[in-house]
Amino acid sequence: MSDKEEKPVPPGAKLEKGKVVPLSENERKFKKDWDANDCIAELRGIAEANPDKVITRNFFRVHSRISESTWNRYFGTFSEFKRQANITLSRHAHRVERAIAKHASVDTQRVMNLEKSGWAGAYLKPNGKRFKTILVGSDVHDVDCDPFWRRCFIDTARRAQPEIVCLNGDIFDLPEFSKYTQDPREFEPVKRIEWVHAFLKDIREVSPDSEIWLIEGNHEFRLLRHLSEATPALKTVLADLHGFTVPKLLGLDAFQVNYVSKSDLTAFNERDIKREIANNWHCFYDAVIAHHFPEGRQMGFPGWNGHHHKHIVWPGYNPRHRAYEWHQIGCGHARDASYCNAERWSNGFLLAHIDTQNLSTAFDYVSILDHAVIGGQWYERAGDEFVTRY
After folding, report:
1. What is the pLDDT of residue 31?
2. Which residue among 46, 62, 121, 248 is least packed, with the fewest CB closer than 10 Å?
């Protein structure tokens, strides 16, 4: 380099008598040609001088020698300015941290996934009969169950002695763990759980040779998910049940219940949760499908769903089952609820009679009004069973 050639001047310096020297404090204060590196050095210097402070935009404005327009033309936003100065995480590092936190938040749900799986087919009672009967009840909703529906259902199990009693989801209600508003001072989860256990006990006593199957519905899913997150009501449940486990809570061992639960509790949003619950279905005798949601109808099999508390029948056909029906069955929940117009619901349950040799199915749907006719026998609602509004 010749003596006449100008030497490069780095940021924060000047050329004086042919030499590069740092700017004085006063010169830096009035320097107008701040580049991006100068801005970063200024921000880092203020951050290091104030380790106990959160460096906000206003804090930097007060303590910096740089105008806002200067750093803004290099970085656009103060957040990006701080990222470039390594005071806050880069976008990539922040995404990694969020991903770690997201997955760490569901570690307890993964543990409960293991605890609630493996119960489908745990208590089978096979027989060699060609013709099978399945008694199906859905959306019972524990203490909110219509007592007349309950009496008819239990007596039908006694008279029909079905090979399978299928509880098609939402046997629990437990508003304590629901999306609906519930005053925590009125939590009574143990009372509701005990109601379900009494219901299962009655089924087991009147029909001891039946397989009991419980399809996980959205209320069972919600219950287990909230319990895994240790909601306030969990403390009550633990205190009263002494040694809480999923099988004990659901009565799986005590009443020999096969529990269909293919859903993953770690689902992160409502859309994923619904998709997970839709995995909870079971095919009986290669002939009929039990599904809590109406999506099961798209599988092209005869069968049933619950969830919507209204009886609807759709016809279908395939070469294997020939002409068949899909039933959306009514509920066991009394036609009275504070969170929706329950008058539009219908109460009922289903008897499915299956020829396992040719895979044909005859459905016998039972409507529960103030009376019911089941297998030629009349039932009438008793005085203490009038809890619905018509």
Report:
1. 55
2. 62
176 close to 182: Cβ distance less than 8 angstroms: yes
What pLDDT digit, counting tens, does each position of 258-287 carry? Answer: 999 999 998 888 899 999 999 999 999 999
pLDDT over threshold 60, residue 149 = yes
Between helix 68-75 and helix 36-49 the angle, nearest 10°, is: 110
Which residue type occupies 27?
Answer: E
Q: What does the alpha-carbon distance between residue 336 and residue 340 come to, in Å, rounded to a whole number?
A: 9
Number of Cβ within a 10 Å radius of residue 272:
13
Dist. CA 49–CA 36, nearest whole Å: 20
Counting residues of the chain whose pLDDT is more than 90, the rounded percentage is 57
CA distance 329 to 350: 7
Q: What is the rounded CA–CA span in Å between residue 303 and residue 321?
A: 11
DSSP string, 290-322: EESSGGGGGGSSSEEE-SS---EEEEEEETTTE
- Of 160, 113, 120, nearest to 137 by C-alpha is 160
